[in-house]
Amino acid sequence: MPGTGCHSGDVRILVVGAGIVGAALADRLARQDEVTVVEAEGPGAGTSGTSYAWINANDPEDPSYHRFRTEAMSTWRRLAAEFGDPAWYRPSGHTTWAAADDAKTRLADRVARLARLGYAAEPIDPGRLRELEPHVQAPPDALIAHYPDEGFVHGGPAARALAERARESGAAVVTGHRAVRLTTEGDRVTGVRLDDGRDLDADLTICAAGRDSPALLETAGVALPLVDPSEPGSAAPCLVATTSAAPGVVNGLVHAPGLSVRPAEGGGLVLEAVDLDAGVDESASPALIQEVGTELLARARVVMPGLTAEVAEMRRCVRPLPVDGYPLIGSQRPGLYTAVTHSGITLGPHLAVLIDQEVHGHASPALDAYRPDRAGS
Ligand SMILES: Cc1cc2nc3c(=O)[nH]c(=O)nc-3n(C[C@H](O)[C@H](O)[C@H](O)COP(=O)(O)OP(=O)(O)OC[C@H]3O[C@@H](n4cnc5c(N)ncnc54)[C@H](O)[C@@H]3O)c2cc1C
């Protein structure tokens, strides 16, 4: 097992966290190893259950990361097929548009660059938008683009399904208990202490605790460069709205200027707008949260003029945001492996495949750019 200080073969592995990253890992590793998952609440209860959860490789800026993400999209397709194309996996396609001149130029450039990379990206006309999303209205002079291979998941059910399959493969899934610290012998991490005082020992402890990872790693003196959500102006804290039932109002992911929308798990819509998160921190007042909900709904009614749904729930959440934006994946100490990333919904299952290989002695060059100790992180 490169860099972890363990031997390949049947290994006692402890996964801390059952969001999409930890649950996908447990599902993969439990096929061969003795796996225990420790989850403070329940699978999918963290960021994964609130995420906008768009599966994509929609940024051509870094071709190598783009390719990594297209591979992750393929891994999702294979995983969903194993589950018999479950309701929590929605390969719905994604439609977006730009209205202002500079935004149109940027969108046209993005579509052209993505298409050159072999990614399914195409400009469409208003008639095609009406076919794809009959209840959605773009300005008449908008530049509209469609990405047919993108989609989304319902993060909570997806994490629960993966954790359940891990359990069926023999993993022990301990829920309702927090790992309060890593346990160590010299330099080696030997497991975790739980909040009830129990010690769980392991040959390899994998930290997949999302936004809470720095706090856990710090207990063994290990640093992780995640954006601190308590810093003023931090981009990590955010608000996501779900609406009451809005059947058939959108079919897939829609990104309008100032609004992201997609179908929600319970028949409503998920609404999000990154610019409205600017003033949000972890102590956001109920008045501010309500104000953001009202604005999201107002924007939604412009994009979907027939929308009668109301905001049913506002959820506050924190993005696990690496300082340079890229995944943080790899061994940080003997006996300790870290798997923390933004875009964890897109990347989780693919990371699980690659980490499974690393745990069993096959270093994955695809992960080399994303080691937690890389320069600049
Ligand atoms: C608003 C928003 C929109 C997003 N949009 C997208 C998107 O469109 N596409 C995309 O790919 N990604 C997106 N992301 C990012 C993505 O959601 C995350 O990267 C991903 O959910 C992280 O998954 P995770 O399993 O690492 O973390 P989590 O889902 O947070 O799981 C970590 C789990 O660990 C548990 N835990 C924490 N500490 C401990 C401990 N000490 N002991 C035991 N258990 C512990 C928690 O209870 C939690 O369940 C978005 C995020 C947000 C907030």
Could you characterize what this model shows?
The protein is of the alpha+beta class and 377 residues long. It folds into two domains: 227 residues, FAD/NAD(P)-binding domain; 147 residues, D-Amino Acid Oxidase, Chain A, domain 2 (2-Layer Sandwich), CATH 3.30.9. 28% of the residues lie in helices and 25% in strands. The protein has eight helices and 20 strands. The protein has an eight-stranded mixed sheet, with helices on both faces. Helix 1 runs parallel beside helix 5 and helix 1 packs parallel to helix 8. The protein is globular and about 65 Å long. The chain starts with 11 loop residues before the first strand and ends in an 18-residue tail after the last helix. 50% of the residues are buried. The mean pLDDT is 95. Flavin-adenine dinucleotide binds next to helix 1, strand 2, strand 14 and helix 8.
Helix % is 25-40%
Q: How many domains? A: 2
CATH architectural designation of the largest domain? 3-Layer(bba) Sandwich
Shape: globular
Question: Number of DSSP helices?
Answer: 8
Question: SSE order, as H and E?
Answer: EHEEHEEHEHEEHEEEEEHEEEEHEEEH
Q: What is the arithmetic mean of pLDDT? A: 95
For the record, what is the CATH homologous superfamily label of the largest domain? FAD/NAD(P)-binding domain
Low-confidence stretches: none
Distance between the termini: 24 Å
- Radius of gyration (CA) equals 21 Å
Oligomer classification: single chain
**Largest beta sheet: strand ordering:** 6-7-5-15-16-17-14-18
CATH fold title of the largest domain: FAD/NAD(P)-binding domain
**Biggest sheet statistics:** 8 strands, mixed
Protein name: FAD-binding oxidoreductase
Organism: Actinomadura soli
Keywords: Oxidoreductase
Pfam families: DAO
